Amino acid sequence: MPAALRRTDVDACASKYARTVPRDQPLTSEEELLWRALMRILVALPRHLDSDLVRAAGLTANEYKTLMGLSEAPDGELRMAELANATGLSASRMTRLVDDLQSRGLVIKRACATDGRGNVARLTPRGLAKLESAWPAHLASVRRRVFDHIDAVAVGRAAQALSSVAANLEDKPRPSDGQE
Q: What's the pLDDT tens digit per position in 123-141?
């Protein structure tokens, strides 16, 4: 999270602007508009980012996220389960994706030294070079698809609001944990 949006800043923003509307109240017209736009973005944006990256850099968005996650990890490596979690992919999907990246020389997968049951993915120099060459295309896509349509004041407000929602969602136990 950028320094400008530290957890304490997000919490302060959330408490300052949080509304106490009963949970069973229908959405206002503005809330409904925001909710529906967010749902449309969640469906359309990944497809566009994926298409832009494949066309410009020969990487899917999931491959880009995987290489990025490894590049930000200590020593450029992560356990497969951690990498899957960081990218929002299932363990089986991550295994297939890493196997493909390995066949292209972008990552190396090996058994975990401390736990023989797990595997570790490590970014190769070739993988880092591929990520670096894809970064301008990713940046251009994100700017064209998102930030070119939002003024700077709205970006700041949206960043605070959506960071607060994301932090709240990430702090909650998952329903599969038997808690709500």
A: 999 999 999 999 999 999 9
